[in-house]
Amino acid sequence: MLDRIRVGSAPDSWGVWFADDPVQVPWRRFLDEVADAGYRWIELGPYGYLPTDPVRLRDETARRGLSVSAGTVFTALHRGPAVWDATWEHVSRVAALARDTGARHLVVIPSFWRDDRTAERLEDPELTPEQWRLLAAGTERLAREVRDAYGLEIVVHPHADTHIDTEEHVTRFLDATDPDLVRLCLDTGHYAYCGGDSVRLIETYGERIGYLHLKQVDPDVLADVVARGTAFGPAVRQGVMCEPPRGVPALEPVLAAAARLDVDLFAIVEQDMYPCAPDAPLPIARRTRAFLRSCGA
């Protein structure tokens, strides 16, 4: 039933958020452990965490039986043409490495409207109509140029504390963009964090789902986060993202809904855990992989 869904994991599930941070697991240990846990697909994580020489990275992944599914970039396209050159410089580096290591996707995450460490408000959480127009137009341009220059498909990742987060914002974004150019990376944890229903989104906008991140939130911690207005970074340190099957949404119906689309999809496990003890990720990763196998994935 789930034979068209390819399961993987990412540096995020090892507590990696930054290219270089002494509290994070070293990249060789991440590669060793993600393979040991039973995954065969990985994402690049923050650019510079894994080797950026594609020949070296291909060698390091191949000898562990791993392949790269996607790279990730952060963008602020709602700010218009003024940010294009800096955006493209960043995107180009990541897209080239993703292409040269065999990936076919580029995950695009909108910029945060508040600081994910301090909760300082950086921008208004609601975009103006003109900013929505700029976001849609900029994303379509990015999709075209990434496709033409690097042969990759972009998948836009709704994310907590960004302007593409709630069901209202996600559907507005989808309705404003060309379905032939722009699809989603549906992160089940972030969507639940922001009050969305992943199964309903898949059933309603199935043709726009191009990639999955599998994640759960702890509903009790989330209730406290919402009540206090806690920013995403501190919420992660509070344990808002949890090991499946302990949280929401239930992943079995999400995977079943995705399987009904009858398309090839990556489903990459991402349990935000920054920062975490270095020995914490591997046992969780092994249990999560076993759980997903019990779901048929």
As a percent range, the share of strand residues is 15-25%
Highest-level CATH class: Alpha Beta
Largest sheet entry: 8 strands, parallel
- Oligomer class: single chain
Count of the separate structural domains? 1
- In angstroms, what separates the terminal alpha carbons? 9 Å
Mean pLDDT score: 97
Quick one: overall form? Answer: globular
The spatial strand order of the largest sheet comes to 1-10-7-6-5-4-3-2
State the order of secondary-structure elements, H for helix, E for strand.
Answer: EHEHEHEHEHEHHEEHHEHEH
Q: With helices defined by DSSP (H or I, 4 residues minimum), what is the helix count?
A: 11
Percent helix range = 40-55%
Q: Based on the structure given, which CATH architecture is correct?
A: Alpha-Beta Barrel
- Parts with pLDDT < 50 across at least 5 consecutive residues: none
Query: Roughly how many Å is the radius of gyration?
Result: 18 Å
Number of strands: 10
